[in-house]
């Protein structure tokens, strides 16, 4: 829906980091700690844009399946830009980290993030390339008190752009298209589990090369201290 250019994705490929704490120090509610988060792309043909990690209280949600996407989620899902969503959570998140660069099929990347007080939940989002408005999402994963947890993350459709699978409407190194679109009849209008690629014919990208089956990512969270 939003009008943008490939510059949005180019900016998103640079890592960013923000620290935020909402209200008074709540560390007395429970010893906080540092967590190691490893994200693995388990798709055969999709690439993840920079991954936004956020620790936050239970009341915070980056997206809500069945509800319309926020403008910030729309910009991430259509253009891979983590900046707007980072700005959205800066006053309510304990910590937020953008894992830089593209994550190719079969690759993993690890980052560390802080959590304490009531902010003992982890969320993660990143765009899938090449897609119109599909993103991988972890929404409010409870952080472990010790050891590690593994979460298999699905792909969601933001519902903000028609899934025409045409490079003209898909940014990134493969397609180089526009990172946003106008409202169209094919927009679903709400966040939902993505149903992947289809054989649309013409100049659309083919499912043989780019389709997937959920889940699309393995997320391992390990408490360091």
General description of the model:
There is one protein chain. This protein has 225 residues and is mainly beta. The protein has one domain: F-spondin domain (Immunoglobulin-like). The protein has 4 helices and 12 strands. It has helices at residues 7-12, 71-79, 83-89, 207-210; strands at residues 17-19, 33-41, 47-48, 51-56, 95-99, 108-115, 121-129, 134-142, 148-153, 155-157, 192-193, 217-223. Strands 1, 3, 4, 5, 7, 8, 10 and 11 form an 8-stranded antiparallel β-sheet that branches. Strand 7 and strand 8 form a beta hairpin. Helix 2 (71-79) packs antiparallel against helix 3. The radius of gyration is 17 Å and the shape is globular. It starts with 6 loop residues before the first helix and ends with a strand. Residues 2-8 and 14-30 have low confidence and may be disordered.
Going by CATH, the homologous superfamily would be: F-spondin domain
- Major beta-sheet overview: 8 strands, antiparallel
Mean pLDDT: 88
Number of helices: 4
| The top level CATH class name | Mainly Beta
How does CATH name the architecture? Sandwich
């Amino acid at each position: 829906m939003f009008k943008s250019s490939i510059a949005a994705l180019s900016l998103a490929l640079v890592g960013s980091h923000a620290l935020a704490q909402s209200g008074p120090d709540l560390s007395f509610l429970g010893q906080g700690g540092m967590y190691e988060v490893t994200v693995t792309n388990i798709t055969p043909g999709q690439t993840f844009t920079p991954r936004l990690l956020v620790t936050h209280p239970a009341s915070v949600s980056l997206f809500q399946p069945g509800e319309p996407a926020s403008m910030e989620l729309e910009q991430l899902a259509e253009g891979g830009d983590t900046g707007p969503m980072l700005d959205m959570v800066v006053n309510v998140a304990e910590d937020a980290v953008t894992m830089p660069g593209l994550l190719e099929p079969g690759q993993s990347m690890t980052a560390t993030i802080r959590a304490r007080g009531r902010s003992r939940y982890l969320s993660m989002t990143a765009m899938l390339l090449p897609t119109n408005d599909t993103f991988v999402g972890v929404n409010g994963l409870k952080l472990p008190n010790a050891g590690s947890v593994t979460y298999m993350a699905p792909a969601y459709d933001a519902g903000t752009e028609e899934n025409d699978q045409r490079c003209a409407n898909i940014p990134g190194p493969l397609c180089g298209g526009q990172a946003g679109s106008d409202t169209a009849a094919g927009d679903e209008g709400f966040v939902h589990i993505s149903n992947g690629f289809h054989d649309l014919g013409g100049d659309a990208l083919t499912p043989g090369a780019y389709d997937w089956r959920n889940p699309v990512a393995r997320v391992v969270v390990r408490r360091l201290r």
